[in-house]
Amino acid sequence: MKNTNPPPESAPSADRILETALAFQASKTLLSAVEVGVFTELARKPADVHELRERLGLHPRGARDFFDALVALGFLRREDGVYHNTPESEAHLDRAKPGYGHVAPMLEMAGSRLFGIWNRLSDALRTGLSQDESKDRDEDTYDALYADPDRLRTFLSSMTGISHRANLRIARQVPWEDYTTMADMGTAQGDLAVQVLLANPGLSGTGFDLPQAEPVFTEYAERHGLTDRLGFTGGDFFTDPFPRADVLTFGHILHNWGLERKKVLLRKAWEALPQGGAVVVYDTLIDDDRSENAFALLMSLNMLAVTDGGFGYTGHECQEWMREAGFDRTWTEHLVGPDSIVVGVKE
């Protein structure tokens, strides 16, 4: 009988399959390095394996492999047996530097919260139910998150980390000179409102979120010297009126909710805005073909795992919802990385 199997040398390689399947190992190595403070210690003083291990309080068995894995992954460099941070690690992963606040809180949340939740992704896919703190409780995702002050602070600061680059771009890309007031809906720590007001001195605004977020928001606004132009409004999206402003922004917000709630938020935005006002939605938008922006599609799976009904969406879909809500003119623009904005104008 003729052998129809292709010779081994012509079979497709399984390298990419294995690399993706085991990617959690590299991820957890980095997250553990942030957790135990590797980069902060090396920012204070480079060290060899013995000194660094002792300063971090690590067991001798795995320390050398741990540090060298970070070298191989490109997060540390080793010269004559002495470990140093890379420029990237020095800028963003040293707890004493400003860049840490823009990146590391998200990494901390990934290690302490998301890593375990994603381990139950198969359950989420089978049941359609979230696997986060609200699992097996009579409360929704955000009730559970906001109930613990420490967990809330970590969550709000992590939202700054994942959004900061896009916030900087929005502060300059949107024609803010046409407006005088803005309200940032679901403001979290308030970084979007802060960056917009810092770049546009003629604007004033408010951040809208559940009342438990106010102390974290106020501290952040004070740190940036904006308390005279930036206030806080406590409330619930779905039961309280929206603030009155020329522009309403939703940064990484709509993906948290199911379709009907997405539409409710856009309709309430249209009702709250004056003629000529605008809604600015930004998110990790899925590309219209749903085949290229892997980060956005993975973020949508994250919404499956951590919310009760949230999902990602395309710019085309969001424009359709805006027009259904009453917005006359809509368009989509790329921001930075995987993020884009969708704008709707009430004419």
Automatic annotation (TrEMBL):
Gene3D superfamilies, per database record: Vaccinia Virus protein VP39, Winged helix-like DNA-binding domain superfamily/Winged helix DNA-binding domain
Record PROSITE patterns: SAM_OMT_II (PS51683)
SUPFAM superfamilies tied to this protein: S-adenosyl-L-methionine-dependent methyltransferases, Winged helix' DNA-binding domain
Entry keyword set: Methyltransferase, S-adenosyl-L-methionine, Transferase
InterPro entries tied to this protein: COMT-like (IPR016461), COMT_C (IPR001077), COMT_dimerisation (IPR012967), SAM-dependent_MTases_sf (IPR029063), WH-like_DNA-bd_sf (IPR036388), WH_DNA-bd_sf (IPR036390)
Domain O-methyltransferase dimerisation: 19-93
Pfam families tied to this protein: Dimerisation, Methyltransf_2
Residues in O-methyltransferase C-terminal domain copies: 118-327
PANTHER family registered for this protein in UniProt: O-METHYLTRANSFERASE CICE (PTHR43712:SF2), PUTATIVE (AFU_ORTHOLOGUE AFUA_4G14580)-RELATED (PTHR43712)
Protein name (database record): Acetylserotonin O-methyltransferase
